[in-house]
Specification:
Oligomer: homodimer
Low-confidence stretches of chain A: none
Distance between the termini of chain A: 38 Å
Number of helices of chain A: 7
Mean pLDDT of chain A: 89
Order of helices and strands of chain A: HHHHHHH
Structural class of chain A: mainly alpha
Strand content of chain A: under 5%
Chain lengths: 151, 151
């Protein structure tokens, strides 16, 4: 096998393992949907609080901003398994394509995870210009996945 | 003023400040309800995963148990402000008494927070007997508040 093919097979095996773990974690697909929606609602609330600061509508408080960034980063690590549960596109805002393209979804998830880690680093630095730039990058990453896989 | 009275006044002032912060954090009472429900659903999911281990229905994996304990501890720190939003008993599982007894609710919340911190410590120790005991104490603390303030 070529190196690229080996990497591809390993990546697919990792996705298959994750899907198996996803099945084990939720009693039924509805739980996975509710889990995702709960995580996404909380992320939305705390992302909006940061957005108000970035847009200059709320004062910048280093500790509070950092807390929101760390929390969003922590929450975002949770729902990937829930996105991979078969049948969990029913009665939810997720397009069926997401389940058919698990490796692409996983890749987009990992990209956003990396952007959020950078947002935490920027928040810790206290450099508001760096924060604003990285907040935009993180938001764009969220938006790309929403555009691809949200109804 | 007596020492006890001073402590009482300070505690009430702290609750009033929290209530003010709660109002500022949510655009409308419905958001506070959804915020609480999201947090509680996620806590329920991860608490159940720990319960399965405590009951011997799932194998004990130190790292996984610790991850669940830390996550529940992190999540539980979030919703207190959302419980104090005026009008947020409507269309929710919270009894109106919770809003009328904010200081008692806050005190119960703080007790549970302390129990969850102890659960994290037990989880980090890796002593399954200590974990089981503290899991019971934390669960009882959750139950006491549910009994008092959940419909």
């Amino acid at each position: 096998m070529t190196r690229r093919l080996v990497i591809g097979v390993v990546a697919m095996a990792a996705v298959a393992m994750l899907a198996g773990a996803a099945l084990a974690q939720f009693a039924k697909p509805e739980d996975a949907v509710k889990y995702r929606q709960s995580v996404m609602f909380l992320i939305g609330q705390h992302f909006t609080r940061m957005a108000a600061v970035v847009k200059g509508e709320a004062p910048y408080d280093k500790a509070a901003f950092e807390q929101n960034a760390v929390l969003v980063d922590t929450l975002y690590k949770l729902p990937l398994a829930a996105f991979l549960v078969p049948g969990s596109d029913k009665g939810s805002g997720m397009k069926p394509e997401a389940l058919a393209e698990k490796d692409k979804l996983t890749q987009m998830h990992n990209t956003t995870e990396a952007e959020l880690a950078k947002l935490v680093a920027a928040a810790k630095s206290g450099d508001l210009n760096a924060i604003k730039t990285q907040f935009g990058a993180a938001g764009a990453s969220c938006g790309a996945c929403h555009k691809a896989y949200r109804k």
